Amino acid sequence: MRHRPLPAAPLRQCCLALLGVAALVAWVPPASAQAVTCHLAYAGASRSFTIAPAAHGEPPAPQIEGASFAFEVVNRLPPEPGAGVEINTYGVFAGTPFLLHQARYAVPGGHTGPHGFTGLQVVREPVRLNELAYWCERAGR
After folding, report:
1. Rounded distance, CA 74 to CA 53, Å?
2. Quick one: pLDDT at residue 67?
3. Which CA distances in Å does 20 have to 14, 16, 23, 126, 135?
């Protein structure tokens, strides 16, 4: 049985429709590119921060700055360099921050435990022995 070639117009319309669907799929951000919520306990108070995804090159702003600690979370979108979540905790002495704790997590996804994808983390400032505890999860969980 011999097949007849499709007329050019329907073939062109089909290809354009497929390209449109492909462009829409490429535009939709991946499920992993979502906000992250971090829960922080410091100086007798508990706070929660939601950190939206950011492109590479956007400078992070500290979520909290205290007399002893500064806490910073960077949520990078894939496929950017450094994609995932980076958490930095700084000790502050005489107004100068120094890195106490740094953690990097792959783009969070799937099942996580009761303390999110980071687990419960406790950072102790070495001179004054103040403690900061945190855990982070995907927003909306």
Report:
1. 8
2. 72
3. 10, 6, 5, 57, 41
Q: Summarize pLDDT for 115-135 with one digit per residue, the tens.
A: 999 999 999 988 888 899 999
**10 phi and psi angles, rounded to 5 deg:** -65, -35
| Banded model confidence at residue 16, pLDDT cuts 50, 70, 90 | very low
Residue 33 is classified by DSSP as S
Q: Check whether 140 has a pLDDT greater than 70.
A: yes
Cα–Cα dist 79/97, whole Å: 30
Polymer length of the chain: 141
Q: Please name which of 116, 114, 115, 133 lies closest in space to residue 124, comparing C-alpha atoms.
A: 133
